[in-house]
Write a structure and sequence with these properties.
- The chain has 285 residues and is of the alpha/beta class.
- The protein has 2 domains: 225 residues, 2-enoyl-CoA Hydratase, Chain A, domain 1; 48 residues, Orthogonal Bundle (Lyase 2-enoyl-coa Hydratase, Chain  A, domain 2).
- The protein is built from 14 helices and 10 strands.
- A 6-stranded mixed sheet has the order 1-2-3-5-7-10, with helices on both faces. The chain has a 4-stranded mixed sheet with strand order 4-6-8-9.
- A hairpin with a 2-residue loop joins β1 and β2.
- The longest helix has 19 residues.
Length: 285
């Protein structure tokens, strides 16, 4: 059991039953906030506004802890992620921290970020990035590790590591290529230029763009819509998309058939189909 769980006095059993309420009540993170927005919807905020929410080793460690808890909490259905600033989502990794690292320490820092972002990517529930300003370097990598991105009109995306004489270290070269294509990724990665919200929308990096003052409201609306669906069906769908994207089409479709059959064993399948046939709103367990 990790130190944050011990500090909160939580057992593993508590982490699987209404755990999110206990996490929020007892959390003592210095750089992260976790708040309930509505039934099943929680907001995780990177809270270092004085440095535009830049990611250092301590912040990554706290992210790692909270993601473990989110993965176990049965009452979390959707996780929203944003930054505590009107200027930045996450402006990048903390350069003051990185400037002191040796080559080996730099490798370890990259491996820490990689592990945390893969954990985010593999959460059983959907994670939605609310990009409310600069999402550069590690911030862009954090946003791309979510299932999709909603952007404010003032959002700016980029992987400007070449300006510092280094490469992306938290998966930026790989996720950006998969999202916007090889040519555009190479342009962004080798020039270090920023992409505004409208271009991010056109390139398929962002799903929607909203005025900054409406971003959280619109994010909550979309999250609540997802949270109202069958939790099991949403989780299985996320697994299909993630695991199928790197398979050939034949094997991916076989996997989908298997999971479709598996979903017929759930109480939610019975409730969803019964509600449809009876002309009522389903009440998923």
């Amino acid at each position: 059991m990790n130190s944050q769980v011990q500090a909160a006095g939580l057992t593993l059993a508590e982490l699987s039953t209404k755990a999110a309420e206990k996490i929020v009540e007892h959390n003592s993170w210095q750089n992260i906030l976790l708040e309930q927005q509505s039934d099943g919807v929680y907001l995780l905020t990177v809270n270092r506004p004085k440095v535009l929410n830049a990611l250092n080793a301590e912040t990554l460690a706290e992210l790692d802890q909270v993601l473990d808890m989110v993965a176990r909490a049965t009452d979390i259905r959707v996780l929203l992620i944003t930054g505590a600033s009107e200027k930045a989502f996450v402006a990048g990794a903390d350069i003051a921290h990185m400037s002191k690292l040796t080559a080996l320490e730099g490798k370890y820092f990259a491996e820490q970020g990689m592990a945390v972002f893969r954990k985010l990517e593999n959460l059983p529930v959907p994670a939605i990035a609310l990009v409310n300003g600069y999402a550069l370097g590690g911030g862009c990598e954090l946003a791309m590790s979510c299932d999709f991105i909603l952007a404010a009109e003032n959002a700016r995306f980029g992987q400007p590591e070449v300006n510092l004489g280094v490469t992306p270290g938290f998966g930026g070269s790989q996720r950006l290529t998969r999202l916007v294509g090889r040519g555009m990724a190479m342009e962004l990665l080798t020039t270090g230029r920023m992409m505004n919200a409208e271009e991010a929308l056109q390139r398929g990096l962002a799903n929607h763009v909203y005025p900054q003052g409406e971003l959280l409201t619109e994010g909550n609306k979309l999250a609540e819509q997802i949270a109202s669906k069958s939790r099991t069906a949403v989780q299985l769908t996320k697994q299909l998309v993630q695991r199928g994207q790197d398979l050939d089409l034949d094997n991916a479709c076989v996997m989908e058939s298997d999971v479709f059959g598996l979903s017929f064993s759930t109480a939610d399948r019975h409730e969803g189909m019964s509600a449809f046939l009876e002309g009522r709103k389903p009440e998923f367990s």
